[in-house]
């Protein structure tokens, strides 16, 4: 995913900045304030609260 696009996107809930998380299995946009990870499918960010994954507060992700 283009880093310039990530800079333009904000969390749909709090309007805060997002961080790009990439590993071998998935690509997500993380909102640290809301502790949500929004999926990126086929290079397209899915910015829906119902599609977001809640992050475990005890772990780093």
CATH topology: N-terminal domain of TfIIb
Number of strands: 5
Q: Main sheet?
A: 5 strands, antiparallel
Question: Structural class per helix/strand content?
Answer: mainly beta
What fraction strand?
A: 25-35%
Apparent shape: globular
SSE order:
HEEEEE
Name the helicity range: under 10%
* CATH architecture heading: Single Sheet
Mean pLDDT: 91
Question: Which consecutive residue ranges, at least 5 long each, have pLDDT under 50?
Answer: none
Quaternary structure classification:
single chain
| Total count of domains | 1
CATH class: Mainly Beta
End-to-end distance: 19 Å
The count of helical stretches stands at 1
From the alpha carbons, calculate the radius of gyration and give it in angstroms: 11 Å
Characterize the structure shown:
InterPro entries: Trm112-like (IPR005651). Belongs to the UPF0434 family. In the N-terminal section; belongs to the LpxK family. This is UPF0434 protein EOD73_15760. One of its GO terms (cellular component) is cytosol. This protein is mostly beta strands and 61 residues long. The protein has a single domain, classed as N-terminal domain of TfIIb (Single Sheet). The protein is 10% helix and 31% strand. The protein is globular. The model has no long low-confidence stretch (mean pLDDT 91).
